[in-house]
Amino acid sequence: MEVAPQARPPVCKIMDYGKYKYEQAKKAKEAKKKQNVMNVKEVQMGVKIEDHDFNVKAKMAKRFLKNKHKVKVRIRFRGREVMHKQLGYDLMNRLIDEVKDLGVVESKPKMEGRNMIMVLTPISDK
User: Fold this and answer.
1) Across residues 41-49, what is the average pLDDT?
2) Which of 25, 29, 70, 82 could be 77's S-S partner, Cβ–Cβ 3.0 to 4.6 Å?
3) Might you report a single GO cellular component term (predicted)?
């Protein structure tokens, strides 16, 4: 039932509840269609990565960013590699330079246990 309180005397209209529910569902479906879902993809590498392997990982990250996905970059430190965190930061900066035209850094590289983690997001076209 819809009520028009500003009318004098107040007027109400009886409505079809099934039709109302159907229209609400249709509006929700239309809104969901226009929504952009952003997934998080992960790229893993080690500190002693070779140039070709790095290029493959950078290409993967670029592809994910082109498809409007966030990219979580993880560098594994094994054994005594943890003592050389600067190598990990250098590798992260190299990757940032590689993908700077497609994505920006959402969270700066930081250590979590034996892993260094950073998140890249695609550049929005607004």
Assistant:
1) 93
2) 82
3) cytosol
Burial grade of 121 (CB within 10 A; 0-12, 13-18, 19 or more): middle
Burial class (CB within 10 angstroms; exposed 0-12, middle 13-18, buried 19+) of 111: middle
CA distances from 39 to 34, 62, 67, 72, 112 (A): 16, 14, 10, 10, 22
* One domain, residues 103 and 62: yes
| Domain span at 27 | 2-33
Distance, in Å, from the CA atom of 95 to the CA atom of 49, rounded to the nearest integer, reads: 12
1: pLDDT confidence band, cut at 50, 70 and 90? low
Q: Looking at the chain, which runs of residues are DSSP E strands? A: 2-4, 11-13, 40-46, 70-76, 103-112, 115-122
20: Cβ contacts below 8 Å, ≥ 6 apart: none
Buried b (16+ CB within 10 A) or exposed e, 61-78: bbebbeeebbbbbebebe
- Write down the pLDDT at residue 78: 93
